TrEMBL record:
Protein name: Altered inheritance of mitochondria protein 11
Region (Disordered): 1-25
Compartments, as annotated in UniProt: Membrane
Lineage summary: Eukaryota, Fungi, Dikarya, Ascomycota, Pezizomycotina
InterPro entries noted in UniProt: AIM11
Source species of the chain: Delitschia confertaspora ATCC 74209
Length: 163
């Protein structure tokens, strides 16, 4: 009995692995531009939060009576209009800064770098590719679809006659 040595099998040359999803690296200028919008919103949110905290603290200090001062009228500097305007300004500042931060994060997450890219992505997702097409393209597309529908109806009519 002779042992036979296994024959070496030839392996095909390896090809480069296919990438399922190719994204831009985080250090690319495109990604840094997108992240800068997010960080702008985050810094605005920090500033607006600190301004809001400072305004609340000043209002609280204003209501505390000073030493050896009568506390029979603690709300001496009360102005409903000024308080309402200040509250509206602070709330608007907080919401706008949070919105900028959310929009910047969303644009970075979906890899959208500008308004034109966002329009293209949204229109392709909703199926509005020909929404702003020129009238000549729209007319030629209508004519083509009309021809196709007429030909399909003729084929259906012929097949129903044969059957």
């Amino acid at each position: 009995m002779t042992k036979s040595s296994p024959e070496p099998t030839k392996t095909p040359p390896r090809s480069s692995p296919e990438v399922a999803y190719e994204s831009t690296p985080i250090s690319s200028p495109r990604s840094l531009k997108q992240l800068s919008i997010f960080f702008l919103g985050a810094s605005l949110f920090l500033v607006s939060t600190s301004v809001t905290r400072r305004a609340i603290h000043r209002r609280h200090l204003r209501n505390i009576p000073k030493l050896f001062e009568a506390n029979t009228n603690p709300h001496e500097h009360f102005s409903p209009t000024a308080d309402a305007i200040q509250a509206l300004n602070l709330a608007t500042m907080n919401v706008v800064s949070l919105g900028v931060m959310a929009i910047g994060g969303t644009l970075w997450a979906f890899d959208i770098s500008g308004l034109s890219e966002m329009q293209r992505a949204l229109r392709s997702r909703l199926g509005y590719q020909g929404f702003d097409a020129s009238p000549s393209n729209v007319n030629s597309n209508r004519e083509r679809t009309l021809e196709i529908s007429i030909l399909e109806k003729r084929k259906e009519a012929e097949s129903s006659k044969k059957a």
